[in-house]
Task: inverse folding
């Protein structure tokens, strides 16, 4: 029997709230994660923590906040989780936001 | 003898930090204030609270946070304080940020 896929919750695009998103990315670690992911390559939590230099537990925490705010998307593949920036929805609802996050200091 | 002008502190443009700015505007009231001020007209605290519908004390608090984060500029004229968006510095350091704040939902 295949292992049931645990649903990973993402807010609907219609629920995205700019203030929530700004508050969530208004943290130097989470901003670094978004900047890293802005090349639109999928990365696992392990890859992100290695590239940025974070403890594993901290990384999962920040990734959960980013996903719940609608900034990132997590795709399950077996036990692995692949994370990307949710660029399509962000660009549609808040055009230019990702660029500002990437280009700002 | 003229009343000494009390210095109103603003962070230097070189000190502006994107994460701090995002965290500060990531609040529905402060986001509303920035959107109101985005027409680049100066407003007093009283005008802002009337246009948005806030209690006076709350308004001063939010305006202080916005000024300390470098989002707004406060100009003293007698006992009055005139507030504007700090558009020149924001645009120079974080191009497109003010537009994103105004156009997003």
Result:
């Amino acid at each position: 029997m295949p292992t049931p896929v645990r649903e990973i919750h993402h807010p609907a695009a219609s629920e995205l709230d700019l203030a929530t998103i700004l508050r969530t990315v208004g943290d130097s670690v989470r901003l670094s994660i978004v900047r890293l992911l802005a090349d639109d390559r999928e990365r696992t939590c392990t890859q992100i923590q290695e590239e940025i230099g974070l403890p594993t537990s901290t990384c999962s925490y920040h990734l959960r906040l980013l996903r719940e705010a609608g900034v990132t998307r997590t795709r399950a593949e077996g036990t692995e989780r692949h994370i990307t920036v949710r660029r399509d929805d962000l660009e549609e609802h808040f055009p230019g936001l990702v660029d500002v996050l990437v280009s700002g200091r």
